[in-house]
Amino acid sequence: MLRAAGVGIGDEVVVPAFGNADVAEAVVLAGALPVFADIDPMTYCLDASAVEAAVTPRTAAVVVVHRFGRPADMVRLLGVGERRGLLVLQQGESEAPYDEVAQRRQRATYLDSKLRGVRTPDGGDGHTYQQYVVRVPGNGRPDRDAFARAVRARGVDCRVPVKTPVHRLPEYRRCVALPETERAADETLALPVDASLTKRDMQRIVGACNALGGLLQPAF
User: Fold this and answer.
1) How many whole angstroms separate alpha carbon 67 and alpha carbon 156?
2) pTM of the prediction?
3) Which of 25, 101, 189, 193 has the smallest C-beta neighbourhood within 10 Å, fewest atoms?
4) Which residue has the higher pLDDT, 162 or 218?
């Protein structure tokens, strides 16, 4: 898509660093330079203000990645593209059948109401919960990685969604301030929310997390 739009050598493309490297790699393969902008801490997608701040005379495009089933604020991002004359591309996630999305939302609602000691996701409009991502703030008590190990020890499968932001990787390393990206990489943890989970499974997830909740400061 970048090549078809004429993006190439000498151009810059604004991309997120929170995620895997495939978007930055695509920009490089097109002959352009990836420029990393910070994310919105609620959606984990590119923040429109951060994108605008990253624009230079060489910027040709922005690639927006919708994350975890929570769509980016496309109204504001498209507004940036229109004001600055930029191509705005979107990379979405695979769409699940409606019934599966409804079941994931049901399970997410249950977790929202039961979990303690972690910051639950902001559902927002249109969240399909491809992943149910909570925050485990580092506060001098057990941090995200310790929390994850303890939850796994109680039989709950969880994963760190983004272990290393792209701007920290050796091949894409940039001296750039991305505080929300860094914080999200350090604090986020994806808990199971699959449609196949039973009520007992959900209770096990809540029990495992809440058993540690007293070790954390309140999320709010």
Assistant:
1) 23
2) 0.91
3) 25
4) 162
